[in-house]
Structure formats: structure tokens, C-alpha cells
Write a structure and sequence with these properties.
- The structure is a single chain.
- The protein contains 4 helices and 8 strands; from the N terminus they run E-H-E-E-H-E-E-H-E-E-H-E.
- By secondary structure, the chain is α+β, with helices and mostly antiparallel strands.
- It has an 8-stranded antiparallel barrel with strand order 1-3-2-8-5-7-6-4.
- Strand 2 and strand 3 form a beta hairpin.
- The protein is globular, with a radius of gyration of 16 Å.
């Protein structure tokens, strides 16, 4: 499984317009593409930051979708008033959890780590330590471990069933690596088909 993570730094007053655009325009468009597994959108309403994760069955599907989504990405940026957009590609190295039965009131934490070892060792550590620790938490819905080998980045995405569960889990999941960035977001869209 592969992810394209697009982060918009937008206008807090235009977050809802961005959600509507991604729901009504981006999701139906990408869902028809070969290898699409759906998307997840997280938003921070106070800062205007929004992250869209499009999920793909394999690297070939991710790469093949690149040109087709460029125009919609630009349109989404305009809708949310984004002055800055970043795009990254990640390989999913481990996951646990499920698509929640009731997608309402979902929250997420995205953590970027500074690997203290090579990426394969960091990935093994994530799978051995962070995934079981997360799965034991109350309100844990799903965890994804991801790696960008080209740029030496390890990142996790953790979804929780409710804001209180996210708050209670702060600092509870660690695999001994130092976090360089942590972002907490409301999950405005969670339309993901988990691979079997």
C-alpha cells in the first residue's frame, strides 16, 4: 500500500469549503482510478492546515495517478485558500486496525520521526513496538506506519474514535525514536478500503 500525502496550509475560514471540494470532486475522481483504495482528510480548523492522504494498492498505481490529480490538487488548494502545498509519497510498512463502523468524531495524530538508525531498523522498531502499544489503547481505530526511503522519513498516522481518546493517548505510543513533528487533526473524511 502506498500513500500520497498532500498538505495544504490554508485559511481557517475556508476549511469547510475545502472539505466539500475534496468530498465532492477529488474522492469520486480518484476512486475510479486503477489501484485506488480511497482517501482520508484531516483538518486543523484553528490553523487552516489540511492533509489529504490518497491511498493506492501499489507504487505503479500511485505513480500512474500523478498527472491526473495535479489539476484537482490545485483546485483544492484554491478552495481552502492555501498559500503553500507540499506533496510526499510514502510506502506503508505496517498497519493495524480497521475502518471504523461509524466514521463520525474521528481524530488523528500524524507523527514524523527522526530515525535513530537506518530506515529498515526504524521500520522494524515501529512494527515491534509502536503497533502493539497503539492497538492496546482505548479508542484506537487504526495505525499506519510509513516510510519515504528517498528522503529518509519515517511517519505514523494514528486514528482515534473521539478527541478524548486522542488526548488520553498523547505520549503513549513510542518506539524509542524522537518525534520531529506532531500534528493533531479532526478527520473530516475517512473513505478508505483496507487491503485484504
Amino acid at each position: 500500500m502506498w500513500l500520497r500525502v498532500t498538505v495544504f496550509r490554508g485559511d481557517p475560514e475556508r476549511v469547510d469549503a475545502g472539505i466539500v471540494f475534496v468530498r465532492d470532486e477529488v474522492l469520486p475522481f480518484t476512486s475510479k482510478m486503477k489501484g485506488s483504495l480511497g482517501l482520508v482528510m484531516g483538518v486543523d480548523r484553528s490553523s487552516g492546515r489540511a492533509a489529504v492522504l490518497t491511498c493506492w494498492d501499489d507504487r505503479a498505481s500511485l505513480d500512474a495517478s500523478h498527472q491526473a490529480v495535479v489539476a484537482r490538487r490545485a483546485s483544492a488548494g484554491r478552495e481552502i485558500g492555501s498559500g503553500e502545498t507540499t506533496v510526499e509519497r510514502f510506502e506503508v510498512i505496517g498497519m493495524d486496525g480497521h475502518r471504523p463502523d461509524r466514521p463520525g468524531d474521528l481524530w488523528a495524530r500524524v507523527t514524523r520521526f527522526e530515525p535513530t538508525a537506518d530506515l529498515d531498523t526504524a521500520a522494524s522498531s515501529f512494527l515491534a513496538d509502536a503497533v502493539p502499544a497503539f492497538s492496546a489503547l482505548d479508542g484506537a481505530a487504526m495505525i499506519l506506519g510509513m516510510v519515504d526511503r528517498e528522503n529518509g522519513v519515517v511517519q505514523s498516522f494514528e486514528a482515534f474514535t473521539g478527541y478524548d481518546a486522542l488526548v488520553a493517548a498523547r505520549g503513549a505510543v513510542s518506539d524509542g525514536q524522537a518525534a520531529s513533528e506532531v500534528h493533531e487533526m479532526e478527520l473530516a473524511l475517512f473513505e478508505l478500503t483496507m487491503p485484504s
